């Protein structure tokens, strides 16, 4: 199905994007060409959008997007919403679901979030849930100002739960394509979420703990740690019945060090910025999630558990503050 951007406003599908940061705002800018878009975002972004529109730059085009509506809560949405995208950090999923529970019961909800387990939370509130992954490099460069830096592959969308999700998925893929976003149907979105999370499980915490970009994690002194994280995670995935594209831990490690880390070498992941700013990270949806499932299945996960505890401790210490004195 193709959605024409010449549709009248009343004919266009209605999409709400909740927790719009870099991913959500960039998505709003593109989808505004094929849908009526409402966003829940920080006040600084909302004020700038109302004043002069959303500024977009990068591979998705350089332009100012007008007509995006900013909301403060469900009361600001129209009576009927077709799709709700949740792009907030996983630490805020439950709170957003509580706030928008009434709307979610009638809409198809799409999770485009890092980590594993968000869809399980969402499915307690929504009748139909679609899981998604996106491997595009987004950044916020100022209030309502985003840049799309690179695209490693198409957005992947797949049915997670709900009897109406399959029909909703077909229509949604048509809308996303009409907006000019590369997208494909995932035959197994659970496996897709785990496959994407492997990169986040292996490099994000190390970048956050040592204040280094992704490329630095290829250091020989870290490869052994990463290998243990991958082996533990593959054991947990096997117990969960999850089959990712790499048949063995060694096959994924070859892909990680040969493709993924070089592709993202200069990038600092979001967990690095969370630690830098003293914010809570998504560790409990990554290494912490692996460790919790390992305990449930009786699978030892000492490396994932250690990494999760280190990040939790670093979170509790708050943002770094330089001092004038140093121990010698």
TrEMBL record:
Residues 15-161 form the Ketopantoate reductase N-terminal domain. Residues 188-314 form the Ketopantoate reductase C-terminal domain. It catalyses: (R)-pantoate + NADP(+) = 2-dehydropantoate + NADPH + H(+); (R)-pantoate + NAD(+) = 2-dehydropantoate + NADH + H(+). The keyword Transferase does not apply. Pathway: Cofactor biosynthesis; coenzyme A biosynthesis. GO terms for biological process: coenzyme A biosynthetic process; pantothenate biosynthetic process. GO terms for cellular component: cytoplasm. Gene3D superfamilies: N-(1-d-carboxylethyl)-l-norvaline Dehydrogenase, domain 2, NAD(P)-binding Rossmann-like Domain. Catalyzes the NADPH-dependent reduction of ketopantoate into pantoic acid. Belongs to the ketopantoate reductase family. This is 2-dehydropantoate 2-reductase. It comes from Methanofollis liminatans DSM 4140.
């Amino acid at each position: 199905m193709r959605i024409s951007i010449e549709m009248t406003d009343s004919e266009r599908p209605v999409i709400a994007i909740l927790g719009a940061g870099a991913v959500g705002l960039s998505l709003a800018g593109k989808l505004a060409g094929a849908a009526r878009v409402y966003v829940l975002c920080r006040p600084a972004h909302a004020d700038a959008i109302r004043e002069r529109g959303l500024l977009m730059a990068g591979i998705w085009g350089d332009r100012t997007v007008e007509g995006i509506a900013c909301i403060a809560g469900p009361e600001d949405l129209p009576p009927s919403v077709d799709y709700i995208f949740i792009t907030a950090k996983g630490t805020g999923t439950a709170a957003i679901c509580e706030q928008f529970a009434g709307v979610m019961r009638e809409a198809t909800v799409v999770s485009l979030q890092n980590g594993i387990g968000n869809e399980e939370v969402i499915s307690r509130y929504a009748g139909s849930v679609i899981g998604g992954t996106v491997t595009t490099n987004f950044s916020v460069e100022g209030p309502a100002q985003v840049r799309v830096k690179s695209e490693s592959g198409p957005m992947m969308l797949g049915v997670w739960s709900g009897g109406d999700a399959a029909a909703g998925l077909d229509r949604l893929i048509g809308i996303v394509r009409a907006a000019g976003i590369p997208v494909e149907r995932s035959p197994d979105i659970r496996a897709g979420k785990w496959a994407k999370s492997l990169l986040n499980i292996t490099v994000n915490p190390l970048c956050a703990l040592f204040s280094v970009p992704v490329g630095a994690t290829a250091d020989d002194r870290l490869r052994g740690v990463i290998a243990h994280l991958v082996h533990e995670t593959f054991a947990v995935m096997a117990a969960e019945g999850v089959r990712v594209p790499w048949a063995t831990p060694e096959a994924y490690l070859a892909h990680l060090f040969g493709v993924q880390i070089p592709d993202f070498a200069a990038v600092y992941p979001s967990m690095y910025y969370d630690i830098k700013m003293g914010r809570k990270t998504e560790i409990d949806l990554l290494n912490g999630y692996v460790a919790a499932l390992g305990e449930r299945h009786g699978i030892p996960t000492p490396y994932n558990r250690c990494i999760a505890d280190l990040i939790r401790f670093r979170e509790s210490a708050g943002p770094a503050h330089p001092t004038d004195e140093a121990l010698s």
